TrEMBL record, chains A, B:
Listed NCBIfam families: PRK02395.1-3 (NF002671), PRK02395.1-4 (NF002672)
Cross-referenced InterPro entries: CbiX-like, DR2241_Fer4, DR2241_middle, Sirohydro_Cobaltochel/CbiX
Keyword Lyase: yes
Residues annotated as domain DR2241 stabilising: 269-374
SUPFAM superfamilies from the UniProt entry: Chelatase
Name of protein: Cobalamin biosynthesis protein CbiX
Domain DR2241 4Fe-4S iron-sulfur cluster binding: 376-455
Record keywords, A-Z: Lyase, Metal-binding
One GO molecular-function entry: lyase activity
Coiled-coil regions listed: none
Length: 469, 469
């Protein structure tokens, strides 16, 4: 049995951020090469701290879904996941045994040589009849002073594509370092030019800065009076959103696996879910969710919608449907923390037992595993001081927060959360497994609270107390 | 059967505001002269728009718990309660028949002649052996240019107290108009001086401005070198918080009643509560509350606390206990709107049937009456335009809000509320009386939403979107 874990950045504010990771997870589930594909995030749930607990097997491959190496892939992800590794990840990844699970952590997908194929695929989408006679290719990177690997990967891809002979010329150009993208009319000679942005997703750079720097007006732009004669530019979509990235992920996973054996079901995880299912078969309330067994399937809905005829509610039939419906509040706000008491109403889900597990995983990520562990006295609490000490970068300053500041922010942020703050000394004797719906443990401060404490320390947390990230 | 309704201002931000009205309601309940004593507020619940619906009888006396006449007593309260009256209220009050109820609306307690006794009581508290030989009394008013009655009442009280012969001298002095309080060393000759602030409650004026203007350092201050010789000042508490105000309220109520007859139980109200109790006897969920019948009594608790042993919860045994426990969120924030999904956890209430009614009235004011009316197709909806048109003073500007602005604010404010916005065209087919816990009607925009729309129109509603009143 094998688990694949895809790691994204996520966002406390914006629901779009996790979308790309969702799509790859679904593509990879479709391939059927892993028994499960789980998503984890820095700023959403399951968090980097929780995601390993939510995997069902003892053989885990973790892929950072980032376009380049850097602070997240080398510092944040390994640290938060407890991989006992910091700094550049070697080719083939690193492997650790953590709590009985073999965890392999790979390079980000963007540095894998197979990305050359993705660039080529994007180029052919933009200009299907690109030819070595008259077509130039620009591989366009961000470029940065913070990580030299970032531009090296662009050059390597350009080299491979030049060697492939598919194009008359291949250039590596950058937004933020030389050779700059604005120089293209001087360096590119071919009459047809395909531009492939080596970016993770559509965004400000692909939609604004690149078109502006290059003078593009759409997917195809004509330049009649250029130094090397008339030119036509075909602007491709960013590589990071191409379906072929799923193949790159599989390459990475296979290379990381090496001669590794087959994993087994992880016993604690299985025990947690069997306990949950046993309760569920008799009907159960978990947080704000009412779970009712019905002739071999299960119905989930908001507790406040109990008793409503099914026809009054939107009926969902997949775990992904539940995930998407409950990612926003009834007011349309993003829900980075799923245990906040803001579960939307107006829906029901009808699911079989396997889908129920996945739906509950999406509804309340890591809650079944953590609650079961708590009931077995096996949930480790991380006090605030330890959480704070671990922080780096812009979050390092939370180490300056006084206990009173932390408690003040927690009073506001956590009072709307179902979880009981064990890490702050709160006591939880009965959980939803004991049929107390609101009994959910909180083992450590989440990144949302950490971010709010940072705002407090920075003096930016006014009456409105929203943080901006 | 007779109902007494006490009207306070209330606050969207501050839980203290309603406290004084609560205390008088409890004192007056203790007197037993009315079958019920109900509190209503402009900025809390039950609101001025709802409070009449929550009264059980057809004979209602409404007392504005204000120290002086003015905008609230003459404009806001009569308008919001639908009394068909605007402007100064005659002595003896006004009476109207509204929806089968006889409603008498009186002057505010502060203008009643019996306040003279309250001033005297406060004076004797501050200086029990005050004597006509050596003691002067200062009746201290705010004074204002907006309502001349305000100072007239102070003069009338001073005149009556002068005539009573209890003091060597009696002076009427003011904070904001002549004769100013700062002139007291010139005008007051007696060696002992009692100062009684004619204010509704302790606050900035009684705690800061008056002591500063008079040079007071505590409840007793000595002035050895004054124009008329050494003087000692005894500073009394404000009149508005004296228990004897309850007697003033009863005087007002009796005078308003005149030759009025005895009221009857209001049938719609009684039907609503009988329907509710019938459901409750079989166990019921109302909003976030779980209601369980237990051997002749009822247990109430937060739904999320279902299944917790009683010993894990704070046990409440009075409706007032429930009221006070649920007036703030788990984060300690004031809850001006009771149907927001922020009901605190951690408590249970054990109550008999009569107390259950009052506790549910406090938990979800007007919800039983409005939901029952809705289920009988008798709940009138007030569209936004009508609500906006009614607004005056600083809220008149909500009339400028576009439908999109109103909807934008409502999306944010109302999405956390249990109620379904019938006034905005939302549909509610099943209510908690049909055993759908979250099914609660909203007949019109509440003052909280009106205030938020005002902030939006004023451009003051940022990401933090808290209004400041």
């Amino acid at each position: 049995m094998r688990s694949l874990v895809l790691i994204g950045h996520g966002s406390h504010l914006n629901g779009e951020s996790a979308g790309a990771v969702y799509r790859y997870a679904e593509l990879l589930r479709g391939r059927g090469l892993f028994d499960e594909v789980i998503e984890g995030y820095w700023k959403e749930e399951p968090s980097l701290r929780q995601v390993l607990k939510t995997t069902a097997s003892t053989d885990i491959t973790v892929i950072p879904m980032f376009i380049s190496e850097g602070y997240f892939t080398e510092t944040v992800i390994p640290r938060e996941m407890g991989l006992g590794h910091q700094g550049p990840v070697p080719e083939g990844g690193v492997a650790r045994v953590i709590g009985g699970r073999t965890v392999r952590y790979t390079l980000p997908y963007g540095v894998h040589p197979a990305m050359t194929d993705v660039i080529l695929a994007r180029a052919h989408e933009a200009l299907p009849d690109a030819s070595p006679q008259d077509t130039a290719l620009i591989v366009l990177g961000h470029g940065t002073t913070r990580n030299e690997n970032s531009s090296r990967v662009i050059y390597q891809n350009a080299d491979r594509l030049r060697d492939s002979g598919h194009f008359a010329e291949v250039h590596a150009l950058f937004l933020d370092e030389d050779p700059k993208v604005g120089t293209w009319p001087e360096v590119v000679k071919a009459p047809r030019v395909v531009v492939v942005p080596f970016f993770a997703s559509e965004g400000w750079h692909t939609l604004e800065t690149i078109p502006e720097d290059m003078g593009l007006t759409g997917t195809v732009t004509a330049f009649p009076d250029h130094p090397h004669g008339p030119q036509q530019v075909f602007y491709a979509k960013p590589v990071g959103t191409h379906a072929a990235v799923a193949d790159v992920v599989l390459h990475l996973a296979e290379e990381a696996r090496g001669a590794g054996g087959q994993g087994d079901p992880e016993r604690g995880h299985e025990a947690a879910w069997q306990t949950f299912l046993e309760r569920a078969r008799a009907g159960l309330r978990v947080g704000e969710v009412l779970l009712t067994p019905e002739l071999g399937v299960f119905e989930l809905r908001h507790m406040l919608d109990e008793g409503l005829p099914g026809g009054e509610l939107v009926t969902l039939v997949t775990p992904e449907g539940v995930r998407d419906r409950t990612r926003v509040t009834d007011g349309g706000d993003h829900r980075p923390v799923h245990t906040l008491r803001t579960l939307p109403r107006g829906w029901r889900a009808v699911l079989n037992e396997a889908d129920l597990r996945r739906a509950v995983h999406y509804l309340y990520p890591a809650v079944v595993e953590e609650t079961y562990a708590h009931s077995c006295h096996a949930l480790r609490h991380t006090p605030w001081a330890t959480t704070a000490r671990r922080q780096t970068g812009i979050y390092a300053k939370v180490q300056k927060a006084t206990p009173a500041q932390v408690e003040h922010v927690a009073q506001e942020v956590c009072s709307g959360c179902l979880r009981t703050r064990l890490w702050a000394g709160e006591r939880l004797t009965f959980t939803f497994l004991d049929r107390v719906p609101g009994g959910l443990p909180c083992a450590e401060a989440c990144t949302f609270l950490v971010a709010e404490v940072r705002e407090e320390v920075s003096g930016k947390r006014g009456a409105g107390h929203g943080h901006s990230h």
